[in-house]
DNA sequence: CGTAGGCCTGCTCATATGAGCAGATCCGTA
DNA sequence: TACGGATCTGCTCATATGAGCAGGCCTACG
């Protein structure tokens, strides 16, 4: 486009958007026909001279969402923009809460994992987001936790706000020996919870990073050395307590045998599996989850979405 | 507006502006009527959820321009946005050049002052911006200048690009004694130039700040002490070589008697007097010029425009 | 309990806008 | 110079949109 034409588009755009003139008036003002004004305006939009943005804490990035859905075959994606100074985790948690509340049909049984992210989602749910939902934990995590009750409170909060019931999984996440794990699984109470978890109409989960900051280390289930060893074997993070590689496979089958909770295949075959993830540190595990089909719905921040969509990986 | 409604406006705005859906489609998608969608969209725009900006080096701020015209009774105002890292002076000079080129009727005689700003305007004019314009200097400034020829070259450049003729004022800006000034004025050549200057169909000028950096000091017409004394007496800057107070009056009539060039009243009564000014340092002198009716057209940057529009001054 | 006033909703209708088309104009090539 | 293709221009017509209006609903107050 000639410099001259470009300047004219700028004038048209100014009169149209800042002065609220009609294209007809603009034409009269600038001595051009209204069609030409319209075309210049279209050019201005195309060339990015006119920049339109939605500024709101709960805005979304529909373009990225569409790209993610197409690229990874998701049923739904929710991407929130994060401005400097915003807390990405909190924004994403809010979006996940919104999505959960808008989910139709309303899940009668909701299977959830636990962790900081899920706790945050629970906090952002509004009272009465649903009614009568049974919220069941899909992986263990009680008692060894430094902050006891976090896992339980997440489930309780979600259930409470939906005027429903929380069903906790009374077991550690990782047992020392496979036999112990099997023994606990065989326990009637635990088995009942697991059975309920398997029937859930929707799952809501996040993921952890494989490094020393992992909750498994903090909780005493694994040592920092254990995690370092997992990383050496290719682990990128954990999903409902199970460590996976970049391609989504279990890193260490022996460890997995000692891990109590819903299996990853249950997630893969679930109708609705909502994966909530935020932050730079979780880009790798997020990639592993979406590429290996562990979720049908992804809720994340803009930066993570963009990282997932980058080519050549 | 309730939180709920606000969120809905955000969704509508996203679908409308980012997904290019019609209000009808949006209504269907969100389960509302198209009228409601339209109203929510209007609310989103009103509340500033939708932000539309024109991003272009030659964009203008029409809102500020209107405010300036109304506030100071100007015929026209041109305000350019200046982003971080932009050179305000250069942007404003470009805008002034654009305005001059678009001026109708095309001035047959254009009276100009000189200085860095005007030189910059001359540089931004495009070849053939007019044809056959006689460009006449309205204040003296030759020969004592450290960079001889600047004043002359400004006029020459403007005239050359308009396929016209430059008429220089062969005299210093400020003389040592009033008699000398009168003698020079009486000179046939000088008188002819002054007479032509008085007939100009348009004037284009800038202004200087009253401090030690003034071109008058650099050129040797005044000493730093002289300027300090002028400031003590209330000077805020100079217009075509004449120092004025905040209210637009001449600071020192005796000095003014020694200053050769068009008088300020000629500017005040001119049909078209274009004042070009940019930069934080010139806010005070700019205020003095516009409030005392020295110009009919103001060309400036956004920050200066905003400073001029601030209340209580 | 009744009612006036304010707000919201869904409509009609006039207007603004974009898609698509035919003629005009420009430019390079034979 | 003549020709063919590409681009530009001004139009028609269908559609999208906003203004304005009447009726419904909610609330506060007598």
UniProtKB/TrEMBL annotation, chains A, B:
Pfam families: Sugar-bind. Keywords: DNA-binding, Transcription, Transcription regulation. It comes from the Bacteria. This is Sugar-binding transcriptional regulator. Belongs to the SorC transcriptional regulatory family. InterPro entries: NagB/RpiA_transferase-like, SorC_transcr_regulators, Sugar-bd_dom_put, WH-like_DNA-bd_sf. Residues 61-310 form the Sugar-binding domain.
